[in-house]
Write a structure and sequence with these properties.
The structure holds two protein chains of two kinds. Chain A is built from 20 helices and 22 strands. Chain A is α+β, with helices and mostly antiparallel strands. Among the domains of chain A are: 96 residues, Calcium-transporting ATPase, cytoplasmic transduction domain A, CATH 2.70.150.10; 113 residues, Calcium-transporting ATPase, cytoplasmic domain N, CATH 3.40.1110. In chain A, the strands form four sheets. In chain A, strands 10-22-21-20-11-18-19 form a seven-stranded mixed β-sheet, sandwiched between helices. A six-stranded antiparallel β-sheet of chain A has the order 2-1-3-9-4-7, with no helix packed on it. In chain A, α17 links the parallel β20 and β21. Chain A starts with a helix and ends in a 6-residue tail after the last helix. Chain B is an alpha+beta fold. A four-stranded antiparallel β-sheet of chain B has the order 2-3-1-4. In chain B, α1 runs antiparallel to α2. The longest helix of chain B is centred in the last third of the chain and has 14 residues. The radius of gyration of chain B is 11 Å and the shape is globular. The two termini of chain B are 14 Å apart. In chain B, 44% of the residues are buried. The chains are: A alpha+beta, B alpha+beta. Chains A and B meet through α2, α4, α7 and α9 of A and α1 of B.
C-alpha cells in the first residue's frame, strides 16, 4: 500500500473516531449534566477525544518534536501542536481534534493537487520516445535512442513517435506534431524534409537519417526547458517566500503578546486571551500562499507548453503579462520567409498559360522564386516538352518548350535580348517571361504576410499592447507596406543588426511603470535582440538552437497567434496569483483581527488556514487549463 | 560544478523554501535551488568535490523532512 493511501486511511479512521466522540459528547452531556461541575466529566471527554486526536495527530507531534531538535522552531507542525494542545488544556476538545483533522485533510489535498499538476505536466511532456528502430540485415531492431549516432538511418513506423531529429531519406507520411507545436492538424512530410523528434508518425513507414544526438534533439531540449522553467522564480514568488519567512514568526509573537499582556489589564482572564492567541497560531501558517503561487506559475507554464509555447521561467511569464511594446523582426516573423506569387500580369496569353510556361522554365531550379512559382502552379508539368534549359547567371533562364524559345528572368535578361518588357515600380521581385522573342508578361513574387499575422496583431492590440513595431533590414517601401497591411503602429527600415539593438534600447528606456518590452524574431540573427529585450520570443524555433538558447519564450511553430495566446495565459496566471495572495492574506488578516477582539474562534481559524489553502490551490490549478 | 538531483518525498513547499535557504548558506555552494514543483535539487558548487556538500545538504533536508532523500548521487 502506498504511503499516501495509508495516510488517507489513517485520517479517515481519525475522522470517524472524531465523529463518534462528538456524538458521544452530545448524547452523554445531558445525562452527565448534573455531574458537570464534578471533576471526572471533562476527563472522560478528554479521554474520548484524545483517541482521535492521537490517531490524527501523532505524526504531527512526532515531526514537531524532531524539528525542534533540529532547531526549526516556527515549523508548522510545531505550531499546530501548540495550538491543539492549548485547546485541549482549555477543554476545547472538538476544536483541538478538528484542527488536527482539517490540517491533515488540507495536507493530503495539497499533496494530491501538487501531484496532479506534476502528472498533468509530465503527461503533457510525455513525448519522450523510449526506443529507436534500426534496420539491420533486413531485421528491425530496437535500440536506445541515446545510443544512436548522428547520421544513422532509423525506421519510424506508423503509430510510433519519432525518436530523434532527422531528415526523411525515404517515404512520405503525415506527422502529428501536436505535442510539440500545439497544432492539431497533421503535417504532410516528404523525402528530404526535416522532422523533429516527439512528433508521431501517423500513416506510413519512413526512413529517417538522424541529424542530432538524443541529448540535443528537440524532445530532450523541450523537456529540459520546461523542467528548468520551474526554478526561475518570478518576483512575486520571491516576494511570497520572503514574506512567509517573516509572517509566521510575527504572528507567533503576536500570539504570545496576546496571551500574556492583556490579562494583566483585564482581571487576569487567562483563558479568553489564550484562546485568542491559539487562533493566531492556527492562522500563522503561510501554506496557502507558499504553495499556491508556485503552483499557479507551474500550471501556467505547463498550460502554455500545451499550446506549443515554451516559457523558460516564471519570471518571464510574469514579464510577458506586462508587455506593452512588442518589436517584431519582419522576415519569418510577420511574413512567411518564403516567397509566393502575388501577381500574374500576362500579355496576350492567359494567366494560367503564363504561369505554366514560367513553371516549366523554372522546373530545374532550386531558387526560392522558382519554388514559389512551381508551388503556385500546383498541377504536374510535362517536362518532356522542356529542353536545353540553361541558366544565365544574374539574369534568369533560357530554355526550349515545345519548340519555342522561352526566356524567364529579370529585366536585365529581357534587355539583353532586346525585348521590351513592361516595367513597373513595385516593391516586389518580378519574373519576366518572353516566348519566341515576344513579351508575354510578368509574375511578381513576394514574401507574403503569414495567414494569421493580421488577426494575431489585432488580438495583441485588443489585449492592450500599446505599440507594435517592425524592425527590419529591408527597404523602406517594403517595411511600410507590411506595417500597413499587417496593422503595426511603427516601422524602422534599413537597419543593420546594431541598429535594431539601438532601437530596442531606446524602447526599453522609454518603458516605464514596470511595463515590459518584448522582441519577437524567428531566431536567425536575432540573438542579441532576444537577449537584451525584457522578453525575447523566438518563433518556429524547432530548427534553431541559437534562438532557443537566447530566447526567454519559444514558440514551437511559427504562428504569430501564439503571441496573443501567450500573453493571455500569462495574464490569467498572474491574475490567479494576485487573487490568491489577496484572498489568502485578506481572510487571514480578517480572522486575526476578529480573533484579537475575541470575535473569531478556532473554527474560523481552521477555515482561514485549511479552507483558504484548499480554495487557493483549486484556483491555482485553473492555470493548467488552456482553451 | 553544476548538478541536478531528484528529491524523493519532498512534500512541503514551505520546507523546500527553507531547505533552499539553508543549503545556500553551506560552504562551497554557489547557488542552490530546491524546486518544489519538479521535486529537484539544483546545486552549483565552487569545488568539484560535491559529495561532502551533498552529505550536508542531505542533513539539512532530513532536518525538515525526515523521509526526503536526494536520489541519483
Amino acid at each position: 500500500m502506498s504511503k499516501r493511501k495509508k495516510e488517507i486511511i489513517r485520517v479517515a479512521i481519525g475522522a470517524a473516531l472524531f465523529v463518534a466522540a462528538v456524538i458521544t459528547d452530545a448524547l452523554a452531556s445531558p445525562a452527565l449534566e448534573p455531574l458537570q461541575s464534578a471533576l471526572p466529566y471533562p476527563f472522560i471527554m478528554l479521554a474520548i477525544f484524545l483517541v482521535p486526536y492521537l490517531v490524527l495527530g501523532y505524526p504531527v507531534l512526532a515531526k514537531a518534536a524532531r524539528n525542534i531538535k533540529a532547531g526549526h522552531i516556527f515549523d508548522e507542525n510545531f505550531l499546530m501542536c501548540v495550538a491543539t494542545i492549548g485547546a485541549l488544556c482549555l477543554a476545547e476538545f472538538p476544536e483541538a481534534v478538528a484542527v488536527m483533522l482539517f490540517y491533515q485533510i488540507g495536507d493530503l489535498f495539497e499533496d494530491y493537487a501538487v501531484n496532479k499538476s506534476r502528472d498533468s505536466i509530465s503527461e503533457m511532456m510525455d513525448i519522450c520516445p523510449e526506443q529507436a528502430f534500426i534496420e539491420r540485415d533486413g531485421e528491425i531492431e530496437s535500440v536506445n535512442p541515446d545510443e544512436v549516432e548522428v547520421g544513422t538511418v532509423i525506421v519510424v513506423r506508423p503509430g510510433e513517435r519519432v525518436p530523434l531529429d532527422g531528415i526523411i531519406v525515404e517515404g512520405e507520411t503525415e506527422l502529428d506534431t501536436a505535442a510539440l507545436t500545439g497544432e492539431s492538424f497533421p503535417r504532410n512530410v516528404f523525402t528530404g524534409d526535416t522532422i523533429a523528434s516527439g512528433s508521431i508518425n501517423l500513416s506510413s513507414t519512413i526512413y529517417v537519417k538522424t541529424t542530432k544526438e538524443f541529448d540535443d534533439s528537440t524532445v530532450s531540449r523541450i523537456l529540459e526547458l520546461v523542467e528548468d522553467a520551474a526554478s526561475e522564480k518570478a518576483p512575486m514568488e520571491n516576494f511570497i517566500t520572503r514574506f512567509a519567512r517573516y509572517y509566521t514568526p510575527i504572528v507567533c509573537l503576536l500570539a504570545l503578546v496576546i496571551a500574556i499582556v492583556p490579562p494583566f489589564f483585564t482581571n487576569f482572564e487567562w483563558t479568553d486571551w489564550i484562546q485568542r492567541a491559539l487562533v493566531f497560531l492556527v492562522v500563522s501558517c503561510p501554506c496557502a500562499l507558499v504553495i499556491s503561487v508556485p503552483l499557479s506559475f507551474f500550471g501556467g507554464i505547463g498550460g502554455a507548453s500545451k499550446k506549443g509555447i515554451l516559457i523558460k521561467g516564471s519570471n518571464y511569464l510574469e514579464a510577458l503579462s506586462k508587455v506593452k511594446t512588442i518589436l517584431f523582426d519582419k522576415t519569418g516573423t510577420i511574413t512567411k520567409g518564403t516567397f509566393s506569387v502575388s501577381r500574374i500580369s500576362p500579355v496576350g496569353i492567359s494567366s494560367e498559360e503564363l504561369l505554366r510556361i514560367a513553371a516549366m522554365a523554372e522546373a530545374y531550379s532550386n531558387h526560392p522564386i522558382a519554388l514559389s512559382i512551381r508551388k503556385e502552379h500546383e498541377a504536374p508539368l510535362d517536362l518532356d516538352l522542356v529542353s536545353e534549359t540553361t541558366e544565365i547567371a544574374g539574369q534568369g533562364i533560357r530554355c526550349i518548350i515545345d519548340g519555342q524559345v522561352v526566356l524567364a528572368g529579370n529585366a536585365r535578361l529581357m534587355e539583353a535580348n532586346g525585348i521590351d518588357a513592361a516595367m513597373n515600380d513595385t516593391k516586389t521581385t518580378v519574373l519576366h517571361v518572353a516566348v519566341d522573342e515576344v513579351y508575354r508578361g510578368s509574375i511578381e513574387v513576394e514574401d507574403t504576410i503569414k495567414d494569421d499575422s493580421v488577426s494575431a496583431l489585432q488580438r495583441i492590440k485588443e489585449l492592450g499592447v500599446q505599440r507594435t513595431v517592425i524592425l527590419t533590414g529591408d527597404r523602406e517601401e517594403v517595411a511600410a507596406h507590411i506595417a500597413k497591411v499587417a496593422g503595426l503602429d511603427e516601422y524602422h527600415a534599413g537597419l543593420l543588426p546594431e541598429g535594431k539593438i539601438d532601437f530596442l534600447r531606446s524602447y526599453l528606456e522609454a518603458a516605464k511603470n514596470g511595463e515590459k518590452v518584448a522582441f519577437v524574431g524567428d531566431g536567425i540573427n536575432d540573438a542579441p535582440a532576444l537577449i537584451r529585450s525584457d522578453v525575447g520570443i523566438a518563433m518556429g524555433a524547432m530548427g534553431s538552437d541559437a534562438a532557443i538558447e537566447a530566447a526567454d519564450v519559444v514558440f514551437m511553430d511559427d504562428k504569430l497567434s501564439r503571441l496573443a495566446d501567450g500573453v493571455n495565459i500569462s495574464r490569467k496566471t498572474v491574475r490567479i496569483v494576485y487573487q490568491n495572495i489577496i484572498f489568502a492574506l485578506g481572510v487571514k488578516l480578517l480572522v486575526l483581527v476578529l480573533a484579537a477582539f475575541g470575535l473569531a474562534n478556532m473554527w474560523e481559524a481552521i477555515f482561514a488556514d485549511v479552507g483558504v489553502s484548499v480554495i487557493a490551490i483549486l484556483n491555482a490549478m485553473r492555470t493548467l487549463k488552456v482553451k | 560544478m553544476k548538478k541536478s538531483y531528484k528529491l524523493e518525498n519532498l512534500g512541503c513547499a514551505n520546507c523546500a523554501a527553507q531547505m533552499e535557504a539553508d543549503i545556500n548558506r553551506l560552504d562551497g555552494v554557489e547557488k542552490a535551488q530546491v524546486v518544489f514543483m519538479t521535486s529537484k535539487l539544483k546545486i552549483e558548487t565552487s569545488t568539484d568535490n560535491i559529495e561532502p556538500i551533498l552529505d550536508q545538504a542531505q542533513k539539512i533536508i532530513t532536518s525538515y523532512e525526515d523521509d526526503c532523500v536526494i536520489l541519483g548521487r
